[in-house]
Amino acid sequence: MADAPRAAPDPTGTQRRADANVHRRQLADRLAAVFGADWLEVPADADSHDRARITSELIAAGTPYIWGALLPLDVPGARRGHVELLVKVPGGYVPIIVVRHKITDPGSGAVTTPLTTLTPARSRPDPRRRVRPQPRDQLRLAHLTRLLQAAGHYPAGPAMAGAIGLDADAVLWHDLDATTWPGGRSALAEYDSRFADRLAIAHAALSGSRPLARPSRVTECRSCPWWPICEVELNAERDVSLVLRGEDAVALRGVGVTTVDELAALDPLTEPPAPLAGMTFEDAVLLSRAWLADFSLVRRLPEVRVPRADVELDVDMESFGDSGAYLWGSWLSGVDIGLAHGYRAFATWRPLPTDDEARSFAEFWTFLTTVRVRAAARGLTFRAFCYNELAENRWLIGSAQRFVGTPGMPTVGEVMAFIGSSSWVDMFGSVREQFLCAHGKGLKTIAPAAGFTWRDPEAGGENSMRWYRDAVGMDGGAPHAGQRERLLRYNEDDVRATFTLRRWMSSPDVLNIPYAGDL
Fold first, then answer.
1. Which of 61, 108, 381, 440 has its CA 20 to 30 A from that of 175?
2. H and E: helices and strands count for the chain
3. Range of the domain at 407
């Protein structure tokens, strides 16, 4: 497949990698200033042969801190790899990776050291942090540990390796021998099993033996460069993974149900041939029948119901990764309470993270509270709606936690009381409970069935990240007013979409959608 055509690079993934490189460079400069002459770097622009040679020379010289190391090729194990930082400890070196995602959450129990203490021997349980599960980090550290062991550069004793995350304020140390993985396995044991599996697949392909892997659709396919190849094969075979999540497709293949047609032919009211994790067996059969009929949406129930109120407020939040929420948009509708109906936005256009985020969120919460109070004063019912509350709830709670004392800021208890009440409605839940969706349940997929279209042909969460960078001048350019307007228009369409979807679900038009019982 080396010369096979691939999908174009995912621009969002490319941007994430560029951001990660900036994050690493900034951290390297900070640490170099701390450790001075003990800190040496392998030139990033050298070819791989020279980088590996320089790394070996620095290790042989006992350099305390080596940045940008390319480890010696492990020929017997068919391994290679680079690591942001190698730290000299008694008996060898330990790896530290630098990543641009959160690796801890508020809590306790994570084993950490300050950035000025880059050694696991002085690590301690942290009373302010708990580990955020990041299996990818542990597997990468296991890979690097095996490379260092193969080269004779890893110390004896517990397999400890570190990670520095987005906050870049501490080193999180992982015990790779600890039995913290499913089945009581360690990260190293999990890595060894997965690596052996991948190596066997590669050897089978190289030798022309019976393939040990076959295409199967999973979430990551959306951004995989090889998807154009797999998609053709999966559609040609009408593979069962086209309608079921990856592990469920594997389970059904294991009992001989390999195609959508075979799944659709089963009796949905009988016992499933294999246990499914993603949905009920009945839903799986009906979803496969909808897929065969080319129905993107099917009603689960004869009648569709959605919560309504006299006064309604649709809410949508825009965030930038883990850095914060820069925009809260709303669409007010229903009975007149003395506030203009339509769109209102509460935004900060200072690059995140910024304390100005507190001001914009407090203004949004004040408006939300005003609507609730006015509706109650008039004896009217009130509900606020979002689509997939996980994102909104995260930043509702997180904002209250981070910005305590800001004028207009609610307490965490007030936020929790609101999101736990019947006044806060997740439209995603209503869709999930009442429809089968053959092509996904995202708002961009479902709202068109209600007749709604986004004005921007590139509307989407990933694209909005790029627009935001331009809107605030994140990459050193002048802030782009046009991109701010684009984000506001996109956000307005998102809240109008949930409003339109809800009206449609409450109307007789929804009965034009096929009923699952008829399939």
1. 61
2. 15, 17
3. 311-512
